[in-house]
Each structure stands twice: as structure tokens, then as C-alpha cells.
Amino acid sequence: MNGDRPARVVVVGGGFAGVASARRLAGQPGVRVTLLERTGYHQFQPLLYQVATAELTPADIRFDLEEMFAKDDNVEVRAAEVVAADPSAPSVTLAGGEVVAGDLLVLAAGSQPNFFHTPGADRHTFPLYSLEDAERVRSRVLQLFEDAAAKPELVDEGALTFVVIGAGATGVETAGALAELVHDVMPHVHPQLAVAGAQVILVDLGHAVLGPFSPDAHDYAAKQLQRRGVQLRLGTSAKEIGPGHVTLSDGTTVPTHLTVWGGGLMAAPLAAGSGLSQGRGGRIDVQPDLTVEGFPSVYALGDLANIPGADDQALPQLGSVAQQAGDWAGRNILAGLRGEDRRPFQYHDKGIMAMIGRKSAVAEIGEHRHELHGRLAFAAWLGVHAQLLANAGVELKAFLAWADEFYLRSHHRSAALLDPATIDTPRIHWKDH
């Protein structure tokens, strides 16, 4: 690198990993950072399901990246979509054809849904991996209730049948929150509509919800979901998905006009557009120091990467993994610029956790997986996610106020949250089905 100018670091992605790496490099002498993110904002992904079920507004979990780095003169934020990377240059190409070159690349472009070649899934499901996804789910739910209120006979056509594919954390949290919205909130919004026909169905090929958790957690989560009226279809997969139905592997067809896809994720398209070695989930394989083999100036992080953990097993796609890897990559970049050795990434395991609904959560904390349920699990969940926000440089007061209100309140939703007109989404043409 040219010693007469600052080292140029190009960071692709404004998620936990990208923001953490840029945060570590911010204010450091001899470094210039260009942070590229298509949307221009950081989304707090663990709460997407809360936006989807009208608990939060999009603005509650959307944080402008320019504002986050406004005081850091050596960080430039650009709202731009990266479509390809050249690890040899190193450089990236933007959607408009512009090439942005640097001395080092940090690739942290995140994930996309993995539909596992399920027929119709890419066209007729509603994924839940971005803020835009969450807004579409919320709009569709509210639209379906409006349509059913106007024409109650639509309930028999699946207007109030909501199917969630995947019983991991995303699916469980979404199903639990949907059930509370359907059974506890919407009857107050549409009192003339009998919601007895409303259903939330959770489908998974596995035989337990929250598969990575312990058997006790499986049982607890299943009971909490069923208490909220969620139907569990375990040991069953979605074989085909249409605009008004889901066909399951047991031969049954469920009429529905909202199928939420939480059935898995894979690396964002940039992984394939980089020419780098891809492993499981299409993710880029990285070395212990988070660089790509053969390209010491290229780091891959977060959901875009297979990061080796204990016994060389790839670490899970968690916000805490992404955030810690981003910070570690920033430290390694600075060490390299000082001529020091880069250190292998050491992940501090904070455990796994999921919200099942208001006042119900499950958490397995730390490397030894100490299990918590209910109020204590919610407190653990809150602490981990508050730290993720703090590490991103986000103001915590609103988040903590929401958490307090979320735990205590019951059926309240603001009019704005329950107004489907706030999001532009295509109407359902019922006669087509």
C-alpha cells in the first residue's frame, strides 16, 4: 500500500458485521472507509417479525447509516448496490457500473432466502429477512383482515389462514406474534368479524420446534405456541406453494393467502458474484483470521461467510457472530497496517434465544447453554440485543422503552400500525383464485 495516503477499506453491507467493522476503523489515523449499503440504513434484523406483526413501526428498527457515522470524518457512507466483486483488484462493481476500488475489501452483504427448490416458493411466499419483507407481511395481514371483514365468506377461502414455513427462531417468533395479533388484537379492530375461523399453522420437516435448542426448550416452545392457538405440523414439508394454497408433504392442501417463509437462508448473490470459493449455503469459506484463502486483502463476514468455530464447524448465522466478527476484522485490518500479525477469530458464545410471544421466551445462555424460560429468558434476550444495538452506535432509550411496554401491555396497537394503507402493496384479486 502507498504509505503517502490512507489505506482505503471498502466495506460492503450495513448489517451487524459491516457496521461493526466500520465502527472499529472509524476515527483511526491512516484509514479511509467507504461503507456501501443498498438501502442506506442499518436494520435491526432480530425485530423484523415485530414489524411484520404490527408491534413496531419500520422506523423503530431502521437506523440511518450517515447519521450513525456523521462524526467520523474518515467514514464515507454511500447508498449503493454492489453486484460484483473482484478480489484480485481488489474492487467492487455497483449496479450502475461504477467500480469502487480499495486496498482492502470487507464483504458483509448478508443473506437471502433459501427456498430449497420448493415449487412456487420464490413467487408465492413472503420471506422475512429484510425490513422491506416485514412491511409486506404486515400489509398483507392487515389487508386480509379488511377483506374478510367486508366479505366474511372469504374466511372459507383461507383469508384468515396464515402459514409459516420453518420452525427455527424466525418461524417460531413470527408464528407466536401472528397468533397474538390474530386472536388478541384484531377482534378489537374488527369486532364485527368472527375470528373463530382464523388459523396460524407452523410447518417444519423436523420433529421439534427450535431444533438447535434442548429437548426441554422444544417442549416449552411447543406448549407456548399451542396455548396461543398455533397449529403445529411437524415432520411435514411444503411440497408446492401457489397464490392461494400450500400443498404439504402429507397430501393435504391448505387454502391460504399468506405464507411466510422462514425455512432457511443462504448467502446473498454477491457471494456468487465474487468468484470466491463457496461452501455450505453458498457462503464464502474464510480462514481463521476471517480473510479468504489466497486473498489476504479480502475479508468475508456475517451471513455471507462460513466462519470456522470449534472443531472447524462453521459458526451459526447469528447477529452476535456477525457483530463480533466485524469488530475482529477491523482489529485485524489495523494490526496488518501496523505490520503486526492478524489473530484468529475467537467467538464469545452468548447463547441462543427466541421470543415466543409476550411474556414467553426461551434462552440458552453461554457456551454451557444454561437454560432460561419466561421472564428471565426475556431479560437475557433483551440484554443481548441491547448490546448489539449499542455496538452499532444506536441510541438505546427507545429500545428499552419499547421492551418495557412490550412486556407489560396486552392488546394495544396504534392506529398507524394497524393501517394497511401506510404501505403500498398489490391487492389480492380474489376472483383469480
- Helical content class: 25-40%
Q: Kindly name the structural category.
A: alpha/beta
* Strand segment count: 26
End-to-end Cα distance? 61 Å
Largest sheet: 6 strands, mixed
Q: Classify the beta-strand content into a percent band.
A: 15-25%
Average pLDDT for all residues:
90
Oligomer type: single chain
CA gyration radius, whole angstroms: 22 Å
How many helical stretches? 10
CA-based shape: globular
Query: Which ranges are low-confidence, i.e. pLDDT below 50, for 5 or more consecutive residues?
Result: none
| Order of strands across the main sheet | 5-2-1-9-22-21
Plain-language structure description:
With 433 residues, the protein is α/β, with parallel strands linked by helices. It contains ten helices and 26 strands. The protein has helices spanning 16-25, 48-52, 65-68, 121-124, 131-150, 169-189, 215-227, 319-337, 374-391, 397-408, and strands at 7-12, 31-37, 41-43, 62-64, 75-79, 82-86, 91-94, 99-101, 104-107, 111-113, 126-127, 161-165, 199-204, 230-234, 238-242, 245-248, 253-255, 258-261, 265-267, 284-285, 291-292, 295-300, 305-306, 352-357, 360-365, 370-373. The strands form eight sheets. Strands 5-2-1-9-22-21 form a six-stranded mixed beta sheet, covered by helices on one side. The protein has a five-stranded parallel beta sheet with strand order 11-18-12-13-14. The protein has a three-stranded antiparallel beta sheet with strand order 6-7-8, with no helix packed on it. Strand 25 (360-365) and strand 26 (370-373) form a beta hairpin. Helix 1 runs parallel beside helix 8 (319-337). The longest helix has 21 residues, at 169-189. The N and C termini lie far apart (61 Å). The model has no long low-confidence stretch (mean pLDDT 90).
